[in-house]
Amino acid sequence: MKVIKENSSDYLPFNKMLEELSGNYAVPKIHHRALQHSKHAKADVSYFEKYNYIFSVISMFERDTANLSDHKKIFLALQQSLKKILPSKEASLLFFDQNYSALLPIDKSLSVQLDNTINSYYKEGILNIVFDSRMTTILPLLSSYESDGPKYNVLIIPLYEEVKRRGLLALLTTSKEENISEFDKKLAESLVYLAIAKIDKCMLTKKVNSLYEDLRTYQAKLNNEYRMTAVGGMTEGIVSDILSPLQVIMSQIDLMVPEIKDNFEVDLLKAQIEKINQTVNRLVKFANNNPAEIKVEPCDLNKVINDFFQIIKSTLENNRIEFVLDLQKDLPAILSNPNHINQILANLFGIIKLKSSGEAAIIIQTKAESDSIVMKVISSAILMDKDNKESDPAIKLNLKVINDIMEKHEGKVTVVTSAIGSTVVTFNFPLRRKIRK
């Protein structure tokens, strides 16, 4: 026999129904377990969403900063990532100075008001609590207080380098303290420390590159001084070999030719010998490069320029470089040394020689201004591109040497390339400066 049940509904026993109506009904164990499983499932979904969000924010920050080599751009990327966590108006990354007397922003052009507020908190001792706790803290912005409380809050993330205080990140937000979760704080901390690592790498790379450029500059200067010293050491013997025969020639001319007025040939011969004598004396003075004897003293800029051009005159003519001197008379003396000016001119004309293709022209002007002496070198050659950048290592090195010497003069050098294809290099020598050896 087969019994077919059409109604398969379950009914509670009568006594259980009474318990339910009276409020004493006990939920069956199977129903309680299903409820627990539902709660765990919701919790798992919540954790999954959080971890997925963390991964998304961090991976996007890594992608945006992967190829950045400027610390300011990395900080801007950090700001954008922090806005995904908390609604923020401004952000500032500040580091302590050497004396721990103030907090200096990584970018002074951003968040000036926030930087001043943070330094005010530091001077008042408010931030000591934050650094002592080593925890991310939320402080009210005192200047934004209204009847219902502060309009803005400042999220402070203290930064440490081992046990030393290094600085902090300040984030100006409209969120209230109770609306900022620990999850948000930890995520912000993770992003900040990722950004700090990238910024440190950029700063270290720039420092290493700067040190390398300084090393090359000093090597070039040492090589120049070595060559000049070697020339100076040989000059004494060479000058003796030149001047001794000249003296003999002069004596023989006086003996062989009686003193006759208007003797054109003899006068011409003596004038040429005197010209050789002056050129040799200039060469001796130019080659005298003993560092122990180089002192800062009043220096006639026009005289140094004239002497320099007398030495390189033949070189310029052989390279088809025409030059004109436009020197102001009665120019006040500058505090320098002829050797320093010669090095500036030698490096500058080395650049002009490299950049000149075919014929070229150079004009050198000097003039006195209110508190400085200005030397302008105008060249028909284009020494740099329109952005004042140069890719040739030799030219970059020469420019670095020139800048270094001008810094010792407490002066400055500017290079301007015109649209018509010429370059103006301006040297500004201050009349008032400290006397240094």
Any idea what the shape is? Answer: elongated
Uncertain runs with pLDDT below 50, 5 residues or more?
Answer: 25-37, 39-45
Can you list the strand order of the major beta sheet? 2-1-7-6-3
The average pLDDT is 76
Could you give the order of the helices and strands?
A: HHHEEHHEEEEEHHEHEEHEEHEE
Provide the fold topology:
Layout: H1 14-22, H2 29-65, H3 71-83, E1 88-96, E2 103-105, H4 112-123, H5 126-133, E3 137-140, E4 145-146, E5 149-150, E6 153-161, E7 164-173, H6 182-256, H7 264-287, E8 297-299, H8 301-318, E9 321-327, E10 334-336, H9 338-355, E11 360-368, E12 372-379, H10 393-408, E13 412-417, E14 423-430
Helix pairs in contact: 2-3, 2-6, 3-6, 6-7, 6-10, 7-8, 8-9, 9-10
Describe the overall structure:
- This protein has about 425 residues and is α+β, with helices and mostly antiparallel strands.
- It has a domain at about 295-435: Histidine kinase-like ATPase, C-terminal domain (Heat Shock Protein 90).
- Helix content is about 55%, strand content about 20%.
- It has 10 helices and 14 strands.
- It has helices spanning about 15-20, 30-65, 70-85, 110-125, 125-135, 180-255, 265-285, 300-320, 340-355, 395-410; strands at about 90-95, 105, 135-140, 145, 150, 155-160, 165-175, 295-300, 320-325, 335, 360-370, 370-380, 410-415, 425-430.
- The strands form 4 sheets. A 5-stranded antiparallel β-sheet has the order 2-1-7-6-3. A 5-stranded mixed β-sheet has the order 9-11-12-14-13, with helices on one face.
